[in-house]
Amino acid sequence: MTASPTVAPHGARVSAAELENFIALAFGAVGLPAPDARGVAQLMAQADVQGSEGHGVFRLPQYIRRIKAGAVNVRPNIRVEREAAGMALVNGDNGMGHLVMKFAAERAIEKAKTAGVAWVGAKWSNHAGPASLYSNMPAAHNMIGLYMAVGSANHLPPWGGIDMLLSTNPLAVSIPGGDEPPIVLDMATTVAAYGKVKTKAQRGEMMPEGWMIDREGKPLTDPKRANEGFLLPIGGYKGYGLALVIGMLCGTLNGAAMGKDVVDFNADDKSVTNTGHSIVAINIEAFMQLAEFRKQADVLVRDLRAAKRMPGVDRIRMPGEGSWQARLENQKNGVAVPPALLQALDTLAGELHIAPLGR
After folding, report:
1. Under DSSP, is residue 281 helix (H, G, I), strand (E, B) or coil?
2. What are 203-254's pLDDT values in tens digits?
3. Which end of the chain has a smaller Cβ tally under 10 Å, C or N?
4. What are the boundaries of each domain within the chain?
5. 88 forms bridges with which residues in the sheet?
6. What number of CA atoms fall less than 13 Å from residue 45's CA on the CB side?
7. Class of domain 8-71+336-352
8. Which helix (H) or strand (E) holds 47?
9. Low-confidence ranges of the chain (pLDDT < 50)
10. Per CATH, the architecture of 79-286 is what?
11. Which residues, in sequence order, are CB contacts of 158 under 8 Å at separation 6+?
């Protein structure tokens, strides 16, 4: 049973259905057709349920501002512009990124049924939430899903530089298991995603050392001063290289923005972003029997968990385990909406003349 929401100063816990309904009402109020508003709302609520708090309802006020400013097309003609047996290029017509990537993922899944592997790129899209939302889509069809994107703002310089020419460029891979939960790797190519910086700022919390440095190389821990520095890549120069390659595969290859052409959608509500994404669906049955793959995946996971541990380590965890546990908890108890976010959503509800979230 979902806990009853409290008043704004104390935050709230709300069900996924309440989140979805609120988000759908908000998008409907600014012109999205009802099916599209509901489709985006479902994916955003899923993001919160799986614990991707920087990419769920937290982003709603920003999305609404951009729609109101004319930066997003609320009635896009999302379509396939180029295709072959195992690939397609989708033109998102500047629609909501969630709609564009759902369309692209569905095309990749359908093509992989016959081609074995399908790669679908997208251009003229927008921010689409957490990467694993889309890698999970092929996994739900007994396939391996791989998703990559150009981030929606540049917060990473080339290794050794200080000009912001790269983004967090995320990568997600979802691999179905048998009796064990799926393996889901969802990561930015920076130590922390910028969405985490934004949530820290909204809550008045400091960042850990190691997330960002200033332009003189000194640790930067105040998220409200984030524009004075930049995010650090994972693994030093290797993370820089990975961000560059993902950007070329999802931006340059698709005819989408990359490098200096990336628009900072955190600071600019009016410009079209031309965000690029790529989704790959790998049909496991094209390589081996699905049941055998599931069995071997479970064996591997159990072997890893049973490995001897270093002192002080309570257990060995798998990629995606945190999101799996968050999903179970949030489905049972509702999603926690912090006070500052709830207040922002209350303000938004008043501006749009819709019912407040959870009340």
Report:
1. strand
2. 899 999 999 999 889 999 999 999 899 999 999 999 999 999 999 999 999 9
3. N
4. 8-71+336-352, 79-286
5. 83, 120
6. 20
7. mainly alpha
8. helix 34-49
9. 1-8
10. 2-Layer Sandwich (3.30)
11. 165, 166, 240, 244
